[in-house]
Structure to design on (317 residues):
């Protein structure tokens, strides 16, 4: 059997997964942006990482605060009024803010004076970590700063892991909703692609023109609409058009014949939706790379339905 239709089937299915993945990622990023998830998580991590370290505020009105937590330092926070918490802080700025809190920029600052400042920190875990870095640095302030930067990077790696797990859970839930909304049943999609050559060819045509997705971390409702429209425009009969409309009146007159198609397909549809949801949750970059590989294989292999090679013709004679 020729691999042409099978390969085209795979391309069409992966294209569906890709377009749904773009939609799911866009919605997930919009939710994250609305909740300011990255900014709030980063601020909480900074508070935990620097608890007990404060820096001196510039002179202000009498009675105003004179110190603030390092997490609120100008090198860390975006101090423009109305701007939300930053979602990214460089390790260098973090280390400089900590040094400022420890008096590292005083003209008379030494590693000994910095260790004295560390000894005043109220949080024992923070104090212990900084004392270890100070002892390992000897008298080199630059080495001490490098240790703080590494400490920050390690903490951000853990924070990124936590955010990734949250994002994966949200994406999986959204993917399942999208699969049901578009009735994107993997089994039905494969069956349609395999039995309808026109749909299969149209999907391959779209796939060969697909460009790398641009995933925006500040996605808006307009971005969601565009991603949803791209899914709806696929040359594949997604959705619920093939089912008769539900009539609520049937619940009172016991004439719910139009529900039979739903009930018959419910078990396989549920499994198909779940399969789609798990596939889509792998993410748009994964499916775009997979699509590119399949399209490249198709373009370098024999054309589906093309002439057989001379050796193949001879072997059948």
């Amino acid at each position: 059997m020729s691999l042409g239709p099978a390969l085209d089937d795979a391309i069409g299915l992966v294209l569906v997964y890709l377009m749904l993945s773009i939609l799911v990622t866009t919605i997930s990023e919009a939710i994250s942006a609305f909740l300011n998830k990255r900014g709030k998580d980063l601020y909480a991590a900074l508070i935990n990482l620097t608890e007990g370290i404060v820096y001196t505020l510039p002179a202000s009105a009498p009675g105003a605060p004179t110190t603030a937590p390092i997490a609120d330092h100008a090198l860390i926070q975006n101090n423009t009024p109305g701007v939300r918490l930053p979602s990214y802080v460089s390790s260098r700025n973090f280390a400089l803010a900590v040094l400022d809190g420890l008096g590292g920029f005083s003209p008379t600052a030494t590693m000994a004076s910095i260790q004295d400042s560390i000894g005043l920190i109220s949080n024992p875990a923070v104090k212990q970590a900084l004392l270890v870095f100070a002892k390992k640095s000897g008298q080199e302030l630059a080495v001490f700063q490098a240790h703080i930067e590494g400490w920050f990077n390690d903490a951000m790696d853990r924070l990124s892991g936590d955010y990734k797990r949250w994002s994966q859970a949200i994406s999986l839930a959204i993917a399942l909703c999208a699969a049901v909304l578009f009735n994107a049943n993997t089994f039905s999609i494969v069956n349609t692609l395999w039995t309808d050559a026109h749909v299969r060819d149209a999907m391959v045509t779209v796939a060969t023109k697909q460009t790398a997705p641009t995933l925006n971390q500040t996605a808006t409702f307009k971005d969601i609409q565009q991603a949803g429209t791209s899914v709806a425009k696929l040359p594949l009969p997604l959705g619920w058009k093939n089912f008769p409309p539900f009539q609520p009146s049937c619940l009172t007159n016991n004439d719910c014949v139009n529900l039979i198609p739903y009930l018959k397909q419910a078990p396989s549809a549920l499994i198909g939706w779940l399969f789609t949801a798990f596939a889509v949750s792998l993410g748009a970059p994964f499916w775009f790379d997979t699509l590119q590989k399949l399209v490249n294989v198709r373009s370098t292999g024999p054309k589906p339905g093309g002439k057989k090679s001379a050796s193949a013709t001879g072997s059948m004679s």
